[in-house]
Amino acid sequence: MRRSAATVSVPLPGAWVIDDSPLADIAGAEALGLRSVWVTDGRCWSQNSYQPTHVANNVASAIRYAMRKQG
C-alpha cells in the first residue's frame, strides 16, 4: 500500500482500503492505520484479531460509504 501510494504521489493518511480479502487487504489496512471496507461477496467475517471499519455487500456501496465518511 505504501508503495502504491508513493507511485501515484498520494499520502496514505486518510486513505481507505476497499477490497474482499480479509488477510491481504483488511489486515494490511489495519497494520497501516487505515480505514477499510470489506466487500463480503456473500461471506461472513471470520477473523477475530482484526476488523474492517465497515462491511459492504458490493463494491458500489463500499465506495459510497467511504465517500460519505471522507474527511
How many strands appear in the DSSP assignment? 3
Widest β-sheet, arrangement of strands = 1-2-3
Instruction: Bin the helical content.
Output: 25-40%
> What low-confidence regions span 5 or more consecutive residues with pLDDT below 50?
none
Shape: globular
Order of helices and strands: HEHEEH
| Helical run tally | 3
- What is the rounded distance between the termini? 20 Å
Mean pLDDT: 91
The helix/strand class is alpha/beta
Main pleated sheet:
3 strands, parallel
Radius of gyration: 12 Å
Strand content: 15-25%
Can you describe this structure?
The protein is an alpha/beta fold and 71 residues long. The protein is built from three helices and three strands, in the order αβαββα. Strands 1-2-3 form a three-stranded parallel beta sheet, sandwiched between helices. Helix 2 links the parallel strand 1 and strand 2. The protein is globular, with a radius of gyration of 12 Å. The mean pLDDT is 91.
